[in-house]
Specification:
The strands form 3 sheets. Strands 7, 8, 9, 10 and 11 form a 5-stranded antiparallel beta sheet that branches. Strands 2-5-1-6 form a 4-stranded antiparallel beta sheet. It has a two-stranded antiparallel sheet with strand order 3-4. By secondary structure, it is of the alpha+beta class. The protein contains 11 helices and 11 strands. Helices cover 25% and strands 19% of the residues. α2 runs antiparallel to α3 and α4 packs antiparallel against α6. The chain has helices spanning 14-21, 23-32, 37-50, 87-105, 143-146, 193-207, 249-255, 281-284, 289-296, 333-338, 380-390; strands at 74-82, 136-141, 147-148, 151-152, 184-190, 211-220, 270-279, 346-347, 350-357, 362-373, 397-407. The protein binds protoporphyrin IX containing FE.
């Protein structure tokens, strides 16, 4: 969705825009600590206008950044396994990651090069002199962080929320272990790939001896430079993707943020579902346009629901076409995605490519589907059950990776990610 529009096409209010850009969160945080939030937002805007913090998203806040933040251009997703049995090492790692993330969010080096020329530098250096590029860090805990092979690894199993369980398997799933699960995850997003890669590399360096990399995937969207005017990004099937999504603070409170009732440490956090979905581009590219439109239930070029004119028009699922059939087919992706409208999620997807599948000499590409919600089992799962059963899109996609993570609320200066859990 564009910076300035809501799904219904109306312009976002200034407050909603602040929310999506993260400045609202900053204001709320400052407000909570007793300083006037409106004044703080005003100052934030002044500074942004001066270009000082234009490309920085604050790391500290009520919520972790990278969820309500308008999606940046690049993403690295890392899934990690813990190799330590010692909870204090895990705690120390999160403290170090928090400090490093905050520095990188401000485009600062992680250490001083000149301290001692006979030890490796504390920062690997490839982001030196580059801007923060709106980098965000979103940390999550997988079900296996709490319990692995029947063992309560860190004595925290009783704090595992019921919402944090492995997803069931759905019809048609072709899930591969190498793209699934993980004790921990970090989603790093930035408007510059080198800045994002530098961050991931340094987080891994800091974690050496405590965590190992289980799997990793990069994702992309169009860059700001390539965009003639702000618009909804297109996926690799050429369709606008992200039109219907929560946009206001009220939406986020209803759909995305946990109120902590299931587990106090998850207050202001959210549950992430990650699906690595391969898109069969060669098959799709041989499919005629009408079938492509019917598959999604939207027009490829404009993004409008079938039977309507504009992208943000409300879909009319009762409208009939000239043949007397529903304009939006009953097995189309948006019809099944909507259902009766009672389950909603925040989708924050990126395209991926791993270049080529050598076994088939075909492109290996698709969608890193990431959704955030209060409860995957009440939101993502029922939607995916409907889709797995009868979505027309199934002919052109394969779900090959799956993971679920609990992403706690943000931390305040002086605290660290997950401090409410440990
Ligand atoms: C490669 C796989 C997928 C592709 C290419 C894709 C693409 C799209 C597109 C183009 C739209 C219409 C525009 C929009 O509102 O953003 C859409 C809508 C939607 N998709 Fe997907 N999607 C994929 C997988 C999924 C999955 C796995 C889910 C969740 C289980 C999902 C849930 C939804 C929902 C809830 C909507 C909005 C429906 C509405 O209320 O109008 N999608 N998707």
């Amino acid at each position: 969705m564009s910076d300035e529009q809501r799904p219904n096409g109306k312009k976002l209010t200034r407050r909603e825009m602040l929310y999506r850009t993260g400045a609202g969160g900053l204001g709320l945080l400052i407000g909570a600590s007793g300083v006037g939030s409106i004044a703080a937002i005003g100052k934030t805007l002044d500074k942004e206008q001066e270009g000082q913090i234009e490309d920085q998203v604050p790391f500290y806040g009520k919520h972790q950044a990278g969820i309500a933040t308008k999606p940046q251009t690049y993403m690295y997703f890392i899934s990690l396994d813990l190799t330590t049995k010692n909870i204090s090492e895990v705690r120390d790692l999160f403290k170090e990651w928090t400090m490093a993330s905050e520095k990188m969010a401000q485009a600062k080096l992680l250490g001083d090069y000149s301290n001692n020329p006979y030890i490796p530098p504390e920062d690997t250096g490839e982001a030196a002199g580059l801007s923060a590029s709106k980098i965000t860090f979103t940390y999550g805990f997988g079900p296996t962080f709490f319990e692995k092979e029947g063992s309560d690894r860190f004595g925290l199993a009783n704090r595992k929320p019921n919402q944090l369980r492995s997803l069931p398997s759905f019809p048609g799933d072709e899930i591969e272990k190498e793209w699934s699960g993980g004790d921990l995850c970090v989603q790093v997003c930035a408007n510059d790939q080198q800045v994002a890669f530098h961050a991931v590399r340094n987080l891994l360096r800091i974690g050496r001896g405590v965590v190992t990399l289980k799997w990793m995937q990069s994702g992309f969207q169009r860059t700001k430079q390539a965009e003639k005017k702000p618009s909804t990004p297109r996926n690799l099937f050429g369709f606008k993707d992200g039109t219907v999504n929560p946009s206001t603070e009220e939406d986020f409170n209803q759909i995305v943020w946990s109120n902590g009732s299931e587990a106090a440490w998850m207050k202001n956090g959210s549950y992430m579902v990650m699906r690595r979905i391969r898109m069969l581009l060669e098959v799709w590219d041989r499919t005629h346009l009408k079938e492509q439109n019917n598959t999604f239930g939207r027009e490829k070029v404009s993004g409008a629901p079938l039977g309507q004119q504009n992208e943000f028009d409300e879909p009319d699922f009762h409208k009939k076409n000239e043949k007397g059939e529903p304009s939006i087919p009953v097995d189309s992706h948006v019809k099944l995605g909507r259902g009766d409208g009672s389950q909603k999620i925040l989708r924050r997807a990126y395209s991926y490519t791993s270049e080529m599948d050598p076994t088939r000499a075909q492109l290996d590409a698709g969608l890193l589907f990431i959704s955030y919600q209060k409860d995957p089992f009440k939101q993502f799962v029922p939607i995916q059950k409907r889709m797995a059963k009868s979505d027309r899109l199934n002919e052109y996609i394969r779900h090959i990776g799956s993971a679920v993570f609990a992403c706690p609320g943000g931390s305040a200066r002086g605290g660290y990610i997950g401090d409410q859990l440990f």
